[in-house]
Automatic annotation (TrEMBL):
It comes from the Bacteria. The lineage of its organism: Bacteria, Pseudomonadati, Bacteroidota, Bacteroidia, Bacteroidales. GO terms for molecular function: DNA-binding transcription factor activity; phosphorelay sensor kinase activity; sequence-specific DNA binding. PROSITE patterns: HTH_ARAC_FAMILY_2 (PS01124). The chain crosses the membrane at residues 675-696. InterPro entries: Homeodomain-like_sf, HTH_AraC, Ig-like_fold, Reg_prop, WD40/YVTN_repeat-like_dom_sf, Y_Y_Y. This is HTH araC/xylS-type domain-containing protein.
Amino acid sequence: MGNHQKKQISLLICLYISIILPLYANDFLFTSINTSHGLSDNQIRYILQLPDGRMVFTTNGNINLYDGIHFSYLHRTDKNVYPLKQYDGFYRIYQSGDSLLWVKDYHKLMGINLYKEEYIRDLESYFQNKNIPEPIENLFADCAGHIWILTDHKLQELQTGIHITLSPNDARQLQDLNTENDSLYLFYNTGEVDCYDMTSRKRLYSAAAYAETEQQYFARTSLVVKAPNSFYQLRNGYKGGLFCFNTCQRTWKKILEENYALNTLIITPDNQKAYITCVHGFWILDLTKEKLQYIPILETKNGQRLSTEISTIFQDRQGGLWIGTLNRGLLYYHPSMHKLTQINRNNFPVAPEKDIAVESFAEDNKGMIYLKEHTHIYRLSTEKDGTRTLISEHNSSIPAEVKKKFNRGTETAFFKGKTYTALCTDTRGWTWAGTADGLELFIPDEQTPRIFYRENGLSNNFVQGIIEDDHNDIWVTTSNGISRIHINQKNKEPYFTNFNQQDGALEGEYLTKAVFKASDGTLYFGGIDGFNIFNPDNESITPELPYSPVFTCLRLYGKKIKLPQASPYTKEIELGYNQNFLTFEFSALNYINSERTYYRYQLEGIDKNWMNVFTSKPGNTTAGNGMLQASYTNLPPGEYTFKVMASDTPLQWNGKITVIKLTIHAPWWKTTTAYTIYLLILLFITVGSIRLYICWTRKKIERRHKEEILLLRIRNLIEQCNNYEAEQKARLEKNGTATSTCFENDKQPDHPKTTNTESAFLARAIEQVEKNMHVIGYSVEQLSRDLCMERTGLYRKLVNLLDQSPSLFIRNIRLQRAAQLLTENELSIAEIAERTGFSSSSYLSKCFQEMYGCRPSEYARKTKKST
């Protein structure tokens, strides 16, 4: 196309714009989103919405993921680019499943894994793993999200493996494809479409959109969008055209043809409209009536009018329209936005440098609305088509009733001895009183007034005006926005809905008492640089939030941590015992007005009930911009379930719930395994202790039994020795001989020789011990010397005779003597210890208790009682 021809086209476009501007300039009012809001750059190339509701915006430099509050970016390098030699078209993005994006650009192909939020590094290996070893010539996606790969004259569906073999002699270039039922439609650069049966894999028919002579005009690029029983195709070359192919009739129809490029085509989900973007503005096609409408100028909420190239357009699942421009970023429109009609300073016939301050309103007997602005009075004229015009009125032409109403509005607001900025007694008998710091509510049955601040839901603390509408809702104008207060009929609690600049509220503050309700119920709010008009009866209903809240971030001790999967795809989180100071961040994807979002959340196991928060309240668990921040500190180990809901009204909670499973592992010393080991150890110690106690008790009983037997044997031996000595003495006296010992080798009929020898030995041993009874420390060595024996021999002798060691033999004789002295009850225990050779009374008591099972003092008392 030559420069002269381009100039002519531009001139015609500008002329066309100037003609239709008054007709369509106000159909849309857009909100601008650009680099100042976080967009990576303002050159938008493509728009897409993910299944979870997040938006994808691709720009010249980056891919932007948008959750309604924050932008995040996916960066690529040259290593992420796969060569796509046969693709000569525009920038395209295909979505496969819920986590895979395919980006197709001029001779380039890239893949994105949203689970990891990163590009696929080696696409060649990726395709080889999918059993596609040949170089890829092109990639397509059908309306069902199935990916088709074009190799050397072979078309293959990536998931199911269905393949169609194309003719090697076909010189046409495949530009796009789509499916319907069991048919595959291939769109070529010649304007032809070939229909294949995917079951038999045979071509059924071919149809051309235009004659062969027109192929040069539309041969370069193609974009196909599915509609019921038809396909709409956008084609570009030297011209731009929109065509429709009817799959039932197998016929083509040309809908639009222009001498400039048509960039993007979308069809709304209800299949009622199609949007086509171009070098200036966009076209709207009514699919039912086949009627075209051209929107060349885009108007923003701040009064800007843009005539720019629109590179792409998209309608989200909430009904919002996203427009991507060539160099001005994003524009967003939703029918329920800008609820308040704004009349700003541009509508006032005054000098640009003069301040505008709408102070009051009035209505005459005919229903005409007047407003006072400083010393000027204007009449608001409304035409049949809804166009509003301000007409300056002279003082003489103003009706008398209007002047009275203006004067009545200057009265001082005085209530209960206090002056207020505004007063209103509603139909319930409640009195609402505005102050410079909060809103007071006086209810007749309550002694003290309630006070509402910004943290309670008020738009701003400085209250300027208060008025009640015909639905018994209270409207409060402030220094920043408007609040509507709805009283719940069940619990009589107030609920706040705030209107900010997104809803058409004034950027400047509202003026004191500049509120008015007309006879038809329409409300008027005056302020700096204009006023607002709102009729509650005509309020458009904001659609419910169609998406469940998206998990955007997890913070540990205030720092963002990286999860194994990207946050929106994370359903389960496992943390250590010392990772228990957490903050969950969520976005409700409220693109219409993120600041007017209500959340409720609950951490099962910690929160007994749902926690309700409002994003515009400062100092709570929201960041003040529509994002939820729910923090928990020092969570004990365990399993939890975190649930989140979002709504645009606190009176209705019927949206989807986002659920995240949270596990905080216990430290190793508090795990089930550790407690099992602890139990086993305790059981082992208990059983071991019991066994030791039983063994010790048994040995003690056996030892005591042996000692008792030993004592009995000693007593028997002593008695035998005494009897033997007495008999010997009596015999010698009778025979006239005397002896002092009972150890002669006389023959005794009652005692064998061995017994007498043992008895003589024991008697001598007992005699030596008793002779040295008072010697402290009388040892086994001394006893063996006194008996003229070696120590080892003495040990073997006593063990064989008494099963007792020499030391225990000495100690038992001493204890027996101590027991005898205790029965006499004449000496103290210390004296007895000294006489029996014990080093101390405590040592005597210890040994005595081991032998007799009681202390010496107890033994003495028992013996005394028995006697």
